[in-house]
Specification:
single chain, alpha+beta, 4-stranded antiparallel sheet, 4 strands
């Protein structure tokens, strides 16, 4: 279960393993744009990354990328 960014304080980073891939999410360091940067990695190599407005969206996009490509 995951919740929206507004309902819980966001830690400095979030990590999870999903289907053998690592998902990393952290607040966007650009405070003007806000949002959350996500990375999908496999064996220490970055597969894809992006920026989403909300924490839930960042998790969903990263998981859906893995489901769609692999």
């Amino acid at each position: 279960m995951y919740t929206t960014a507004s309902s819980l304080p966001m830690p400095s980073s979030y990590e999870e393993e999903f289907m053998g891939f690592e998902i990393y999410i952290e607040p966007n360091p650009d405070k003007w744009r806000e949002g959350f940067v996500w990375l999908v990695c496999k064996d220490g190599e970055e597969i894809d990354s992006g920026l989403e407005f909300g924490f839930d969206e960042a998790v969903a996009v990263a998981r859906n990328l893995i489901l769609a490509k692999f």
